[in-house]
Amino acid sequence: MENQEIILYSRFIEYANGSMEKISADDTPKVKLLRQEALKRFIDKGFPTKKMEKWRNSRMIECVNENYNIDSIEKKNHDFHCVIQNLDTEVVTLTNGMFSEDESIKTLSSGIVVGSTRKAMQQFPELFEKYFGTCNVNDVNGFYDINTALWQDGFFIYAPKNAVAEKPIQIIKIIDEENNPFIQTRNLIILETNSQLQIIDCDDSIKEQSSFVNSYTEIIIGENAQLDNYKLQNLNDNSSLLNTNTIKQLANSRLQTHTISFNGGKIRNNIFVDIDGEGAESNLYGLYLVDKKQHVDNQLKVNHNVPNCNSNEKFKGIIDNEATAVFNGHVYVAPNAQKTNAYQNCSNIILTDTAKVNAMPFLEIYADDVKCSHGSTIGQLDQDAMFYMQQRGISKDNARMLLMYAFAAEISNNIEIEALRERIDDMIKRRLKGELSCCENCVFQCSTPKEYDFKIDLSKI
Question: Considering the entire predicted model, what is its pTM?
Answer without folding.
Answer: 0.91
